[in-house]
Amino acid sequence: MTFSELIAVYLFLGGAAAGAYVVQATLDICNGVAQRKGRSDYRAPGFLCESTYRRVRRIVYGASLVIIAAGVVCLIADLGRPEAFYYLLIYPTGSLVSIGALALSLLFASLVASFCDATFTMGQRARRALRVIKVMGIPVAVVVMAYTGMLLKSVVAVKLWQSMWLPALFVASALSCGCAIVLLGMCACEDRRATRRWEAGLLRADMVVIVLEVVAAVFLLGDIAGASGLSAVWSILAGAQSLLFWVGFVGCALLLPLAVESAVNITRSRVTVAATASVSTLVLVGGLCLRLVMVAAGVQPVV
Fold it and tell me: What is the average pLDDT across 246-260?
């Protein structure tokens, strides 16, 4: 199995779309529980008014559809033949590429169902069916997040990708990117009073995920040093990929967002739209840089 430069973009787009789906679908479940308990005003914790929340859902699910479609295009381009993706679906095998293609297709279907549920007015039966599809899509999205790391791990010739901490790091990064996409969707809403509580909660959740990213990254580098030698770690920390790693991943995805989110939680200050959008954008940039670093460090010879 060989990869072009597009594979890093595909891994990022697939993971980000899956992460956004998991985060937004989980929020849908929480919001539904809040509604069933009769919390129908702004003072109730964990509740968004229907019009504002529908707008958030439309933005997030619509953006995730575009993102995952772009990821599939990158995958097809990397495969070299457009019909290859079609054959992976109609003639499934036990390979990770085939499993990933099936999971991407199921996630795309779940995103379509969720977007329709958030956009169109339907009867109760249709809405229940769409919600069932949405819930079933959550484990599919988790599979897609893990698959983006397992795909690299399946290339046994590259010792750099053999650590089990690589899929764990990609899952944590995908969840962080998912939080960023949902936060950007909330930034597009004018009713700040309705979204502020949710933004604070998502920032706290993202802070926890970023800490998990740090742990996974440290253990991953330790595994690489043990299996491939210090030269492999050196190629990431001080070699050709060091700028992307330190500035792109460590700076944009870990340190800066963690500093802002910690300050917001410690001081309990109100976060502005500009600050939320900036942190979210940094997380997405850092998530892409992580994939670029890991793919480039694996395909280039370590000297």
Answer: 95
Are 123 and 136 a contacting pair, CB within 8 Å?
no
Q: Is 124 helix (H, G, I), strand (E, B) or coil?
A: helix
Task: In whole angstroms, give the CA distance from residue 3 to residue 127.
Answer: 41
Kindly state the tokens that stand for 236.
Answer: 């990431």
Which SS3 state, helix, strand or coil, does residue 41 take?
coil
Q: For 141-198, how does the pLDDT look when each residue is reduced to its tens digit (9 = 90+)?
A: 999 999 888 888 888 778 788 889 999 999 999 999 999 999 999 998 877 777 887 8
pLDDT in tens, 9-42: 999 999 999 999 999 999 888 877 766 666 544 4
Query: Residue 260, SS3?
Result: helix
Asked if residue 265 lies in contact with residue 207, where contact means CB atoms within 8 angstroms, the answer is yes
**What tokens appear for 213 in the block?**
């990213």
From the list 130, 121, 140, the residue with the least C-alpha distance to 28 is 130
Residue 259 and residue 203 in contact, taking contact as beta carbons nearer than 8 Å: no
3-class secondary structure, 4: coil
Amino acid at 69: A
* Residue keyed to tokens 């502005």: 272
